Amino acid sequence: MSELLIRDVTVGDRPGRAVHVVDGRIAWLGAAADAPAAGRVLDGGGALLTPAFVDAHVHATATGLALTGLDLHGADSLRAALTDVTAQTTAAPTGTVLGTGWDETGWPEGRGLTRHDLDAVVGERPAYLARVDVHSATVSTALLDRVPGITALPGYSPDGRLRLDAHHAARQAAYGSVPPGQRRSAQRATLDAAIALGIGSVHEMAGPEVSSPEDLAGLLTLAAEAPGPRVVGYWGELSERGGLDVVRELRLAGAGGDLFCDGAFGSHTAALSSPYADRPETTGALRFDTAALVEHVRACTAAGLQAGFHCIGDAAVDQVLTAVGIVVAELGRDAVRACRHRLEHVEMVSDAAIAQLRRWGMVASVQPAFDAAWGGPAGMYAERLGVERAAGCNPLADLVDADVTVAIGSDAPVTPLDPWGGVHAAIDHTTPGSGMRPFDAFDAATHGGWVAARAEHPEGPLAVGAPADLALWATELTLSAVLAGRARPACRQLIVAGRPC
Predict the structure, then answer these.
(1) CA distances in angstroms from 164 to 102, 279, 432, listed in the order given
(2) Domain total for the chain?
(3) Cα separation of the two ends of the chain
(4) Confidence of residue 51 (pLDDT cuts 50, 70, 90)
(5) Is the backbone of residue 406 left (phi > 0), alpha (psi -120 to 50) or beta?
(6) Which of 140, 159, 176 is the last residue of a domain?
(7) What is the DSSP letter of 106?
(8) Please, what is the Cα angle at 289 between 288 and 290, to 5 degrees?
């Protein structure tokens, strides 16, 4: 039997508490003066103890590659981005140049990177630089030459700025070139970053267009080798293409995650019901026939598996819900509710769609950092959609008030691993009235992830019998004070399944 006593801590808003952990689960909690004896004691010194965060949407390998390599989020001009690329090619003179995070919307040059810009810096090396939304990228000529038939794919552009299918093909080629050692180091960097931030669990959103079964299996193995965050794996591939086979083989949480029903606003590839404000000739694109989505939901529901879909635009959300509704009519609402199917991002969702999410027991996996980065009357949402439609994006309060299960994630590397930042962004929504109440936001960033993965304890994360996934913070503030002051305390100790990390 393994046991740990965490004493003299503030639990929520109650100081002077203690938690006794036995074999990875909470066995007792109460006043520190009444705590049972234990062979191992962690003295909190009055610090705040909370449930560990759950990041409900992560891409671990890509995040680690950004953490250890070329991160362009801070580039404020085309020139600065190319300077960063030059520095990276000098530091790592061989292999594919990989980068992510550039965003041309505020650049003084008024345009994004082209392959001609990139070729001038990287020469004959393959290079892939993802735009901040990771649904488009600029690639070098050498990488284009590695992808047979790419010029015939939707989304190809001769200037090397790729979208849609051409982008997915180039991304597969770029990340497929990463050697195993570099891949493992990147994954380790992500898990280490999560430990430092008090993240006890990450939902890895894998799929054939963003990674591989081998990449996902390697991450699961790495996470099991040492104390650290749990990895809850998802595989985003349609059942008709063999997606459920991967889920069963790797014993994953669900057949979904980044199963791309559409793209992203920034790349004009999210599927809308009416045209983009800044490109009225397009409404984005749906990537699957509705019949294929129906078959996927049907197969998952019949097998008792959780399905999940990446859907950002309102047309994509409505298409998925149409497919779910057909399966509800066939197999019954109770069968669908039992699977707790997920929608990832769900940024543009109507009141009617929210009501369907609640009725069918579905999960809204959201990223409040998107609103913080791109919301508001002068942000990218307003530029792409117009101010009125942009103000309706990410209606977090409406989801919570409708009793829809909400889980908060980062979509790292799109936005950084930053759980406190995500909570505060959920509260301080750029649209008045759309933000979450403080404790609702914290709950969505902790307990919400467990509910989303169908693994929650019935009495909550701080109850006897619940898994001991806890974070001790370097502050003596109560949780209410941290939330009210938008504080970002450092993680003093992460504990996962009762083991300090």
Answers:
(1) 18, 16, 34
(2) 3
(3) 19
(4) very high
(5) beta
(6) 176
(7) G
(8) 115
